[in-house]
């Protein structure tokens, strides 16, 4: 297959590009920054047509992951860039597809599990899950990420490409042993003795093992009956305290200091990020994948953590 992946310079994009390239597919990454890679890398600005658009003609798959990283402070400049990078990239890809005689048969569009409500009482699936933004038990500043997620999906839904099946990937945190990724950071906390519960530790962490993330993407490519929003997450999210305890146990560290909420706020300021990334309860389950018959290889966190730690050590 010929697979076009805009915005594949981050962890998730690298995981996908590496897998599809190794499987013998023709992978073309579209990025703001041209860089050396085993696959072709074309440049774009994320908002205007260019030579990259011609590569979409005859391609089987488009996987759009473009969007400014959200691991930053939500100041005015960063908010504008986060919002614009997502909406503009979706818009220009839609415009490019409209001009093609043979557009991709499927467009997988990145979204986020953050779109769901901050809650503890029940999991959010695609059928009964509650879209966030109006809950009373979360800070106002958390609503920015939900506003972005809703606008992101709204922009995608407005695009009409009759020959292309459209899927929204409401992804939880993808755990891979790659350096610089979210698992690498969580493991670092454990290794230095800071991998205790964050805040109350009751907030849920939704996650997906990188092997299952890849398998879910392939499953979506093959199952033509699936379109619209699809949650990419393990069926077993865990409260933060249990999640970190399991990771500590696998690593062989019995004790770690808990991190109080006020400490998280100071740490987030120091690291130029937002405490929402840790404190929001993301309790998400993959209802549509399970209903369609998808089987997870790593559905439970202790098993997944063991595999990830072993692979992380092998790559050290």
Short description:
The protein is built from ten helices and eleven strands.
Can you put this structure into words, describing what you see?
It is built from ten helices and eleven strands. It is α/β, with parallel strands linked by helices. The chain has a single domain, classed as Rossmann fold (3-Layer(aba) Sandwich). It has a seven-stranded parallel β-sheet, with helices on both faces. Strands 7-9 form a two-stranded parallel sheet. It has a two-stranded antiparallel ribbon with strand order 8-11. The protein is globular, with a radius of gyration of 19 Å. The two termini are 33 Å apart. The model has no long low-confidence stretch (mean pLDDT 90).
Shape: globular
Helical percentage: 25-40%
Portion in beta strands: 5-15%
When the domains are counted, the total is 1
Q: Residue-averaged pLDDT, rounded?
A: 90
Largest sheet: 7 strands, parallel
Number of strands: 11
Low-confidence stretches: none
Ends: how far apart?
Answer: 33 Å
Count up the helices.
10
Q: Give the CATH class.
A: Alpha Beta
CATH topology: Rossmann fold
CATH homology-level superfamily: NAD(P)-binding Rossmann-like Domain
Order of helices and strands: EHEEEHEHEEHEEHEEHHHHH
| CATH-derived architecture | 3-Layer(aba) Sandwich
Class based on secondary structure composition and strand pairing: alpha/beta
Rg, nearest Å: 19 Å
Question: Which strand order do you get reading across the main beta sheet?
Answer: 3-2-1-4-5-6-10
């Amino acid at each position: 297959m010929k697979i076009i992946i805009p915005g594949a310079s981050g962890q998730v994009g690298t995981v996908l590009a590496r897998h599809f390239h190794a499987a013998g597919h023709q992978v073309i990454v579209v990025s703001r920054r041209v860089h050396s890679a085993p696959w072709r890398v074309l440049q774009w600005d994320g908002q205007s047509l260019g030579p990259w658009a011609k590569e979409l003609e005859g391609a089987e798959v488009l996987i759009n992951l473009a969007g400014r990283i959200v691991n930053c402070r939500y100041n005015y400049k960063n908010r504008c860039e986060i919002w614009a990078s997502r909406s503009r990239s979706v818009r220009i890809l839609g415009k490019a597809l409209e001009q093609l005689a043979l557009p991709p048969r499927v467009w997988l569009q990145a979204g986020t599990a953050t779109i769901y409500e901050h809650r503890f009482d029940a999991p959010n699936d695609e059928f009964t899950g509650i879209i966030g933004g109006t809950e009373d038990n979360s800070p106002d500043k958390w609503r920015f990420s939900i506003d972005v997620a809703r606008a992101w999906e709204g922009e995608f839904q407005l695009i009409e490409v009759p020959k292309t099946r459209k899927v929204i990937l409401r992804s939880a945190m993808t755990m891979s042993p790659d350096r610089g990724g979210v698992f690498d950071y969580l493991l670092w906390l454990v290794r230095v003795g800071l991998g205790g519960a964050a805040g109350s530790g009751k907030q849920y962490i939704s996650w997906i093992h990188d092997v299952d993330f890849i398998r879910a993407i392939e499953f979506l490519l093959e199952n033509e009956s699936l379109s619209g929003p699809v949650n990419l997450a393990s069926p077993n999210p865990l409260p933060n305290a249990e999640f970190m305890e399991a990771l500590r146990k696998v690593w062989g560290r019995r004790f770690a200091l808990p991190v109080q909420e006020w400490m998280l706020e100071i740490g987030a300021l120091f690291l130029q990020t937002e405490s929402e990334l840790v404190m929001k309860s993301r309790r998400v389950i993959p209802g549509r994948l399970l209903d369609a018959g998808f089987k997870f290889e790593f559905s439970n966190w202790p098993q997944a953590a063991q595999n990830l730690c072993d692979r992380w050590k092998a790559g050290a």
